[in-house]
Design goal:
By secondary structure, the protein is mainly α. It has a domain at 27-224: MetI-like fold (Orthogonal Bundle). It contains ten helices and two strands. Strands 1-2 form a two-stranded antiparallel ribbon. Strand 1 and strand 2 form a beta hairpin. Helix 2 (24-58) runs antiparallel to helix 8. 19% of the residues are buried.
């Protein structure tokens, strides 16, 4: 980045570090922090949306829909998360290529499954092998986002269903007795109040989601843990910037990043919980009224 970085071995210490910390690999390391934050900001609402759908499915009066909701949450909760993180991207990727193979190469006469190999025609590759690297990166990120949303959506579904059940049924029945339909009572009475009961569980899921982001490395995405291990490892004189084993310092940076992220999140959830409890007939609402008095 700097003009004096042409020969790092002749640089004084401060210039050496200036060149070292602005090298191409370090810029990728800094960008990986942004990738983690983007994943969290996209995975959280996607998980909440899937969780809301799963909670409604579990409460449905239609048995097939209720079985589907129960099956989805039970299956995800009963299987280790890492299995889903590895299975979903592979299954979706091969499923898309299988469909594209039959659409684009109908005359292909060779089997797709050849022993342990999954081979489709070149035109069916998703994304295409000649596509720019940024398209491959976005595709891998989208698959990772889908895996995170499916896993945490199942846990969010149980949290939201419990919150819906926690709202006193008498309030919903009273609303229906005043002429509201079941849908109106849900939207105007149950839905606004359930967030008070759901927020503690959702805040825990948010923290777990943050701590699960290092699994991006398993999905082929170069996240901050990958770069901390890669850049912190010992470098000999064959490298442009040789140094000893600095992994402890890089991992310390990662640790501080996650601590700051969870600390800011905790403050945000405490303020949101205080706002939601205002005026509510809950333990938090009673505490706020007592403090105000």
């Amino acid at each position: 980045m700097f003009a004096f970085c042409s020969d790092p071995q002749t640089l004084p210490q401060w210039q050496w570090f200036a060149c070292y910390l602005t090298s191409g690999t370090h810029l990728a390391f800094y960008w990986s922090f942004v990738v983690v934050i983007i994943l969290i900001l996209l995975a959280a609402p996607a998980s909440l949306l899937l969780g809301f759908g799963g909670a409604l499915a579990q409460r449905s009066r239609h048995a097939p829909l209720r079985w589907f909701g129960l099956g989805y949450t039970s299956m995800v909760r009963g299987v280790p998360d890492i299995v889903f993180f590895l299975f979903v991207p592979i299954a979706v990727d091969q499923g898309l290529e299988f469909l594209m193979h039959h659409v684009r190469c109908p005359d292909w006469d060779l089997p797709i499954r050849r022993g342990n190999d999954f081979l489709v025609c070149p035109a069916a590759k998703v994304p295409h092998s000649s596509s720019p690297s940024w398209i491959h990166n976005i595709y891998a990120f989208a698959l990772a986002l889908l895996a995170f949303a499916l896993v945490f959506g199942a846990f969010a579904a149980n949290t939201l269903r419990g919150a819906m059940d926690a709202v006193p049924k008498a309030q919903v029945e009273t609303a229906e007795s005043f002429g509201m339909t079941r849908g109106q009572a849900f939207r105007r009475v149950l839905l606004p109040q359930m967030w008070v009961y759901a927020l503690p569980g959702l805040s825990n899921l948010w923290m777990i989601l943050i701590k699960a982001t290092p699994l991006l490395f398993l999905l082929g995405i170069q996240d901050i843990v990958f770069w901390a291990r890669e850049l912190g490892g010992a470098k000999t004189s064959v490298y442009t910037y040789p140094h000893d084993d600095w992994r402890v310092w890089y991992l310390l940076v990662v640790l501080v990043f996650y601590l700051i992220l969870t600390w800011v999140s905790q403050i945000g959830f405490e303020r949101l919980m205080s706002r939601l409890n205002t005026g509510q007939d809950t333990a938090g609402g009673d505490r706020l009224r007592t403090e105000a008095a």
